[in-house]
Structures are given as C-alpha cells and as structure tokens.
Amino acid sequence: MQQAQRPQQPDASAPTEDAWIDDDTRELARAFLALETEDEALRFLRDISTVNEIIELGHRWRVANLLDQGVNYHEIGARTGASSATISRVNQWLRYGRGGYRLVIDRLKAQDR
C-alpha cells in the first residue's frame, strides 16, 4: 500500500495560502480528533454546522470518492447533482491539494479490507 504523503508544514512567509490556519482552526482540528464514533462525529457536525453546510460537505466527499474510483465528470454530475465547477474543484484538491482527501480515502479503503 502506498503511504500518503504528509503535508509540509506551513511556510510562515507564504502570503495567504495558510491564512486560514490560526488558533481557532487548530483547536477545531483537535476537536475532530477527540471524536471516537460515527455517532459522535454526526452529533458534533450538527452542532457546529448548518444542515446545508453538512450536506454540501457530504456531497464533496461523495464526489471525491467517485473521482477516486475513476468515474467521469458527466456520470458524477448525473449521480450527485454536483456542478462541473464543484467536481473540478474537488478533483483539483484531490490531485494537488494538501493530501487530506487522499489520506482519508486510503485509510478508509484499508479499514474495509
């Protein structure tokens, strides 16, 4: 199994790429790490997000999984209702992003074996 690459530490001199990383977002990441079950994760998501935000995240996650399976844009759009812009954006992050999609997709595949 190919190991997922670890994202590089943010470069303090980088202009805005990491501007979203602050004490609050780091604490949020720590909060996710404290969750132990799917039920806990769902409860936390519902408390911290609107229903529409959760649904949108779920759609992006489904798109990422379909892209990983090699499904083409047209079929993904037909199955999910996602726009080509959303599919393209998810594909960009899946292929060239921080490796978060890839990391979780690979871990879940390994758990399913």
Keywords:
113 residues, mainly alpha, Trp Operon Repressor, Chain A, globular
What can you tell me about this protein's structure?
- The protein is an all-alpha fold and about 110 residues long.
- It has a single domain, classed as Trp Operon Repressor, Chain A (Orthogonal Bundle), CATH 1.10.1270.10.
- It is about 65% helix and about 0% strand.
- The chain has helices spanning about 25-35, 40-50, 50-70, 75-80, 85-95, 100-110.
- It is globular.
- Residues about 5-15 have low confidence and may be disordered.
Average of pLDDT: 90
The profile of the biggest β sheet is:
none
Number of strands: 0
Taking all Cα atoms into account, the compactness measure Rg is 16 Å
Low-confidence stretches: 4-14
Range of strand content: under 5%
Instruction: Estimate the helix proportion, in percent.
Output: 55-70%
From the spread of the alpha carbons, the general shape counts as: globular
Return the CATH class.
Mainly Alpha
CATH overall fold name: Trp Operon Repressor, Chain A
**From the helix content, strand content and strand pairing, which structural class follows?**
mainly alpha
Termini separation comes to 12 Å
Q: Using the 3D structure, state the CATH architecture.
A: Orthogonal Bundle
Q: CATH homologous superfamily?
A: TrpR-like
What is the H/E string? HHHHHH
What count of structural domains? 1
The number of helices is 6
